[in-house]
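Q: Is it fine to ask for two folds in a single conversation?
A: Yes, each is treated on its own. Send the first.
Q: Here.
A: Result:
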Amino acid sequence: MGTDRSKNPMLAGVLSGVMPGLGQFYCRQWAKGAAFLVAVSVADFSADVSKSLFDFLLTRALPDDTTKFLIGSLLVLAIAAWSVIDAIRIARKLP
């Protein structure tokens, strides 16, 4: 019974693509995973990104503050992309 700690980089990236931080949790980087999860949640809730997106999908009504929505969306996307790249990089470095 070996202690093979290697992780699949593709799976780590997909997990972080589903929810930023999950790929880090998969790679046992608990603090970093929590930081990505908190960062994306704060960005999402402060700019009402998810709420505005769901409202648009249901009613086709644009958000009241489109600038806030666009900047928030870009911030959420940037955090998510950073999380995916970081998770893949971590998984590749594990023995």
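Q: Second one now.
A: Result:
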Amino acid sequence: MSNAPETSAYLRTEDAPLLPAPISMVGIQGWIIANLFPTVGNGIVSILAGAFLVWIGWGVLDWALFSAVWSGENREVCAVEGAGACWPFVYSRFAQWIYGFYPIDQRWRVNICFLVGAAALIPMLMPSMPHKKWNALFLLIAYPLITLILLTGGHFTMSASAFLNAFIILALVATFLPLVAFGIEEGIQSNRIGFGLAGFGILVWLASFVIGSSIWHSALGSFSPGSVGAAIFIGAGGLLGIGQLRGADNASGQAVLRNWLIAGAVVFGLMLILKMDFGLQEVETSQWGGLLVTLVVAITGIVASLPLGILLALGRRSKMPIVKTFSVIFIEAWRGVPLITVLFMASVMLPLFLPEGVNFDKLMRALIGVALFSSAYMAEVVRGGLQAIPKGQYEAAQALGLSYWKVMSLIVLPQALKIVIPGIVNSFISLFKDTTLVSIVGLFDLLQIATTTSNDAKWASPQTGSTAYFSAALMFWIFCFGMSRYSLFIERRLNTGHKR
């Protein structure tokens, strides 16, 4: 028997019980310590910032809620000493802030546009909703046409030359896209005569907007220069299509003819629709105002700026000198002037350069100016995303034999647009707020309507103007904050990175 001392060993057969985290690390107290008081310096800054926010917040709440006036019929209730916000004024003028000077008995048309737009937009913003393609087609094609007819009444005075000009523009796009997709040099070489006549027709058509009509009529008699240029262009297009169809494998020629037929069908359909009598009272755009004008300008600018910005960004990075030069000049020219100057030029100066008898609606001129201006800024945002894509992505796509547009649409642009989502939404928010500048050309947007109605003698008081601006700012904030929150939602949903 050994005399060695007995030893005992303890071997744990199960995990030790988990102890609760320190109270300073969990819950609200843990969040406060980790984010507001991690160090002494941060704690001092947090206390000072918190005190300032409490002071400002209490002042706003006291003015907007506790000391505010909630009922009354005129300025006397708001002219009391120590009174806060004058909410009876907002209630009495709120309808005018929404519709402007739109006839009261016709405001149901505006309400239908708002409801249909919201009903179509909400499912579009929900990723899990099906039939997104049809929803997008409705929003981009059918809804603008429905809105145009409802808001204006459908009384259009477009002449045959206007539809002809629209067809020429669509036909140009229809010709350009297949040539870019299949190769410009090859397409032009296959039918030089057709392209030569088409170019000459376009020059004649463009010259009709620059040179005085009296000079043209002295040379052409009763034929308008626009119709002559259009006839040359359309005839050249026929030769172009026939020439390109030589050979069963000429996909570019078939695409040109197909797109021309689609363009003709679209213009013919628009001509039939716009010539119909819908039995609605005509409401001129000068009677529009308030939130209606703000949304029309903002939505038009947002919808038009993104595709135009993408095309300009691709053009600026193109290897074709003409396309690149045009894109650079366009972007730098529009970014080099403030929006207020663009609106002033579109409203006051543009009619001076148009032929006699040719004029555009004031709101239409503002919409075009805003769309072109915002597209230049959007182009730079998208270009930043394109430059962030590694070169290997382009090389891998080209190694698969993909064409330029397939490389861009399937490989590069989805990644680039995902990267620049914050910049895109930031441009949208900036554009939405910049709609207040349309007041410089005599359009009564939401802010201008609020300013005008606050000068009403019936409600004139020390708090009327402050209440009007506070209410308008709150309405702008709701829209802009909604866009920023949705942007964050999309960023989180599309995030494929790994956080460390």
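Q: Anything structural to flag on that second result?
A: Two points. Residues 313 and 380 are 7 Å apart (CA to CA). Residues 291-443 form a domain with the MetI-like fold fold (CATH 1.10.3720.10).
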